[in-house]
Amino acid sequence: MLAFRIAIVVAIEALITFVGYRLIPVNAATMGFAYLVAILFIAARWGLTESVIGSLTAVAFYNYFFLPPVGTFTIADPQNWVALIAFLATSITGSHFSTQAKRRAQEATDRQREMEKLYALSRSILLIDPAHPTPKQLAMRIAQSFEIDAVNLYDRESGEFYRSGPHDLPYPNEQLRQAALEGTSFRDDATHTVVTAIRLGGQPIGSIGLQGLDLSDSALQGLTNLVAIGLERTRAQEAASRAAAARQSDELKSTLLDALAHEFKTPLTSIKAASTSLLSSNTLKPDQKRELISIVDEEADRLSVLVTEAIQMARIEAGRVVLHRDNYAVSELIESVLYKLKPSLEDRTIEVKITPNLGPIWADRELIEVALRQLIDNALKYSPAHSSVVVRAEPNDSRVVVSVADRGPGIAEQEQLRIFEKFYRAEASRQQIPGAGLGLVIAREIIHAHGGEIWVESKLGEGSVFHFTLPMAKGEPA
Would strands 349-354 and 388-396 be described as parallel, antiparallel, or unpaired? Predict the structure, then answer.
């Protein structure tokens, strides 16, 4: 390619000489100007090497055809030597400046492209999904923004390496780790590879290796700064999330203690009154003693339920719900729950309606019994004394839908979504019916842990129906 360009340069100078010597004879000064213009054009079009060749060729043609004695490479007049040297110097200097201007224009264009890519990278960093590893996303976005062969990012805090791009970096991970520990950088022009430390506040927090990318030092510094900001932004978000979780946990504990303290007062007061009467009086009749002992027994059961709810809620909040699933018949689970609720049923009627030949469910028996007991217990508390509660189970595609219906006062539409919040209780029943506002929350979390859904249908004055779904098992019940 260079030889072809040199041939074109010589041809241009020969054409100018032919025109000025044969076609349109001109004087030496005019030809000197023509040669100079041609050399400046060559310098602007190709570069310094071609313009120097053009200058030497022009000097040779100028000397041979236009400086006396014409037809030889000798110069008779000493003044012509000065003119020739000045011409050559002017040609080379002009071509040098033209080449330099062209190079600077190219450098300015390259810097502009670098800034555009850095700007695109900075915008993409703002879209990083905190649900996935940030360093991995940073490496991927750098490879996409700069269209490079390989990116290898080392995060010093986690000690992990994250790769992106179609190729692997031609250096072992140990060199990236060393660059992060010592804060050093190096380039390999042969493989177009650069490895540099990522700094934040003057301290190295990682390193990055890039292959197939020729960045200026300022652009490379800008790239590492963006990566450092991306890493620090994620860490700040994680720290804020941990602080918020800790604050929420403290608030939960405080609210839970307040709610439990309030709920414990009523059964404790009843137990204290009954036990005091038993201890202080020797004239009580057997049926009176039995009634007081029943009060103590019932209120102790109520305290036990409150403590159990608090423990279950704490486990759910801590993420310690572990499912031990097996195949169970729905009818068996409902019968087990009703048996455990028998002491509190008294003369209440529970209607159980199960679709014939309903298949088993795939669930944790103990947890599902807890959720179902919460719903039935709620239905009993909110229904009139002599009304019945209806428990249904029916198939729906690959799931079983279990429903608990009561004949209570119903739930206002604006409260139907809030009843599944911790400690929330409907305004109308807050004072009349005891509870801590945890039962529905526990039931919801248990159902969600099984991959099911729970919801309520209710109208004021017509009662409420709570539904939840569970996955249907494919085998026989255990």
Answer: parallel
Residues 356 and 269 in one domain: no
**337 & 265 share domain:** no
The 10s digit of each residue's pLDDT in 32-58 is 888 888 877 887 777 777 777 887 888
The last residue of one of the domains, among 174, 198, 214, is 214
Question: Which of 276-290, 370-384, 430-444 has the least mean pLDDT?
Answer: 430-444
What does the pLDDT look like over 199-251, one tens digit per residue?
887 788 888 888 887 777 888 888 888 888 888 877 777 777 766 666 655 65
> How confident is residue 431, by pLDDT bands cut at 50, 70 and 90?
very low
With 70 as the cut, is the pLDDT of residue 268 above it? yes
User: Is residue 137 helix, strand or coil?
Assistant: helix
Q: Where a domain ends, among 264, 286, 317?
A: 317
Helix axes 78-126 and 134-146, enclosed angle (nearest 10):
140
User: Which amino acid is present at 64?
Assistant: Y
| Six-digit token string for 284 | 């009580």
User: Do the Cβ atoms of 370 and 442 come closer than 8 Å?
Assistant: yes
Q: Which of 400, 336, 399 is nearest to 365 (CA)?
A: 336
Q: Which residue has the tokens 């999330």?
A: 241
CA dist 294 and 282 (Å) reads: 18
Same-domain check for residues 333 and 467: yes
> In the predicted model, what is the mean pLDDT of residues 371-388?
84
Domain that holds residue 167: 130-214
How many separate helices (H) and strands (E) can be counted in the chain? Answer: 12, 12
The single-letter code of the amino acid at 14 is A
Radius of gyration of the chain from Cα atoms? 44
Tokens of 60: 């040779």
Count of the separate structural domains present in the chain? 4
Do 347 and 379 lie in one domain? The reply is: yes
